[in-house]
Amino acid sequence: MSEQLGMFQRESCSIKPIKGYSAFQKFFEDAIEAKIITFCDSPEHIQKTFEEFNLQKLEIIVGDQGKKDYREKLVDKPEIANVLEDLKQQGRLKIYTPKGVVSIHSKIYILRIPNNRVRLLIGSANFSKNAWGRQHEAVAIYETSEGSPMHQSFEDVWEEEMTYCERFLEDLTKEIEKSDQPREEVIRLWVAGKVLSRDVDETRTVTAKLVENLQGVESLKDPVHGLSDARDKREEVIHLRGYDLRTKDQLIQMYEHPEIHFNSHQDILSGPRHAFATRHQIVFGIPIVNVRDHRLVYTHTNGRSDVLSQPWPEDPAEIAKALDHIEQYLSTVDEFADCDDPNSTKMHMYETLLFIFWAPLITPYAQQLDDRGISKDKNLPFLYIHGESGGGKSTFVSFVLRLISRHRVRAPEESRNVSKKSLSGVQQSASAFPFIIDDIEKQKLKNLKDILTGYWSDWRNDSPYPALIFTSNDTKPDEWFRNRSKRLQFDLLYDGRRSYQEKCTALQEQRNDLFSWFSHRYLEVFSRRDASVLDDDVLALGREVFLELYDYAQKPVPKYFPRRPAEDTHDPGLDIWQEHERRGHIQFRFVDDTIVVEFRSSFEYHQVRQLERELHNSIRRQVTGRTITIRNPERFIEWYGETKPSSLWQRLNPFG
Q: Does an H or E element contain 477, and which?
């Protein structure tokens, strides 16, 4: 002991107030390596530390991440994640975060400096520039030799805290190694949380198993309207043994209910089915609807399930009445709306109905894409319904929601309630019921970009996803979203009279079993038509089934029924282009296998950009000043149709 005391006496020890970040930085100026325990930090500060000081190696424990994902600090900063990953692969950086619900509040610094010396700091200062404001901090500073008792005592604390931690960036390294996507794309998706961390993956597995149990065969009731209102009090059990602590904590919170209990000794959640079903819908915001054995099954909050899809009635008049109900709603365009082209508008509205009818059946479609190695993100589009305020978008999707849910879902989700976190929750819901977001603005879409660009990338067969549908007053979203969406326009304005409102209300409340018959026939045909997904039109089979319904009902098909994609049959953007050509606002030239579109001098740049956004997604283009260069003229001419720009068409004869 006397020898140790003598050593301490030969080493320097002091306590100093630190009045600002610049003063704190001075401790690192001669450091070669560092081990740090801090309650909070910033990735930017870690990057800057390597840039400003000659650090060969940094190991850091970040104590405030026990209930969080450290990636949250890297959202919208994939370039910093890239730098940190490089440092990790070079062996120069190790970041650790606490496992489970533990948090570590210590602030300890072990700095190795030249000549086998170490500088040891302990106090209130966090390793984060953001943590320094006007407050003062105090630290105790020890200057000692490597391997001294004081140095060893700091190392012992480090090792003790390490037992509660796990390595950060490990899953990113594995994703980069196994993925055939560009490194930058893998990092971007990982930062956005799309590469599943273990606890999210486990939560999804547990949720999918629960939904499968709730929708078991013994729960199903026929016929369609024979479901009992009584609660299903049979016990459901969720086994949590072996799962990550964060998974358990999340699931216990998700299924918090007076009748659901957690047994910590057996690691199980148990309670009546109705309690789990109720909590599931509250947490995820959508009902449980899935395809099971070629039948569409709906699970109610009372814990009981029934089969939505039903065989066609023997009396064709029942189907005729249901189809007439749809047409009556669409006739409100003629009766109550200011509309330049009623037939085109009704075609887009019917196409909207077709998409929402198809949406709950998206899982078998996704499975066939997956089996063939076809990209789901590129071939399972979002639906984007746009038009001016007062165009009846929200009212119409509410009408269709009632049709596919038997009036149990009556309205879409308001945009203000939607976030990256809630969309991630939708992915974990294990339900294929469509998630419709109402009145979304362009900036909101930008905020959701990270999760939307890879929405289907980590989909698995055992955990269905809902199709996403948006309504908006913004005519044209950004290009990244346009490339992933099917866009339909409600080009009308309802007059808002009481008679219109009364008619819509009456039509919305009317019972209609058309979706039950549609889904039954769709699944019947789809199950034996393996090549159906190869059609570029995701609604091709849905159109076919609707035409069969009209034929069976011996009812004439309205001329506005979309036999082909409505946005191709009548593209409002094409109308705008052709109108500008007729007015002499634009000229076309053929230059080196491209079409150059030139705008008159009075056109502002933002007007050129607006017209560029009206082009079909399949047309490759580049905007330069007041010109747009079309790089695939054949597709442009195909899109432009019979009224091709005459001055150009003769020059493009090879494509005719």
A: none
Q: How far apart are CA 417 and CA 1, in angstroms?
A: 64
DSSP 246-309: HHHHHHHHHT--TT-EEETTTTEEEEEHHHHHHHHHHHHSS-EEEEETTEEEEE-TTS-EEE--
Task: Say how far apart CA 341 and CA 648 lie, in whole Å.
Answer: 28
Is the pTM of the predicted complex or chain greater than 0.90?
no
Q: Give the list of residues 6+ apart from residue 652 with CB closer than 8 angstroms, or none.
A: 590, 595, 633, 637
* Residues whose CB falls within 8 Å of the CB of residue 426, separated by 6 or more in sequence, listed in order: 284, 285, 286, 435, 465, 466
In Å, how far are 145, 203, 237, 383, 487 from 266, measured between CA atoms? Answer: 50, 18, 11, 45, 51
CB 268 within 8 A of CB 240: yes
**C-alpha pair distances (Å), 628 with each of 15, 32, 432, 504, 582:** 67, 55, 41, 44, 18
- For residues 143 and 14, is the Cβ–Cβ distance under 8 A? no
CB atoms within 10 A of CB 108: 19
What are the φ/ψ torsions at residue 36 (nearest 5 degrees)? -135, 135
Residue 628 · residue 621 · CB < 8 Å: yes
Which pLDDT tens digit goes with each residue over 511-549? 999 999 999 999 999 988 764 555 678 999 999 999 999
Q: For residue 223, say if its preceding peptide bond is cis, omega within 30 degrees of 0.
A: yes
The tokens describing 359, both together, are 């949406």
DSSP β-bridge partners for residue 623: 628
For residue 38, give the H/E element and its range: strand 33-38
CA neighbor of 130 nearest in space, from 231, 48, 194: 48
* Distance between CA atoms of residues 655 and 643, nearest Å: 15
Q: Please give the full DSSP string across 172-216, using - where no structure is assigned.
A: HHHHHHH--S-HHHHHHHHHTT-S--HHHHHHHHHHHHHHHHHT-
Number of residues that this document lists for the chain: 656
> pLDDT tens across 637-654, in order?
888 875 445 555 554 543
Using CA atoms, how far residue 271 sits from 207, 275, 289, 465, 584, in Å, is: 15, 7, 21, 26, 71
pLDDT tens string 224-270: 444 456 888 899 999 988 887 878 888 898 899 999 999 988 989 99
Tokens read off for 382: 């979002």
Residue with tokens 């602030």: 107
Q: Pairing mode, if any, of strands 305-307 and 93-98? A: unpaired
Q: Where are the beta strands (DSSP E) in 405-462?
A: 413-414, 435-438
Strand partners, 649: none
Q: Give percent helix, percent strand, percent coil of the chain, each to the nearest 5.
A: 45, 20, 35
Closest CA to 38 of 98, 119, 118, 116: 98
Structure tokens at 44: 């930017």
Q: Which helix (DSSP H) or strand (DSSP E) does residue 586 occupy?
A: strand 586-591
What one-character-per-residue DSSP string does 330-372 give?
HTHHHHHEE-S-HHHHHHHHHHHHHHHHHGGGHHHHHHHHHHT
The span from the CA of 259 to the CA of 239, in Å, is: 17
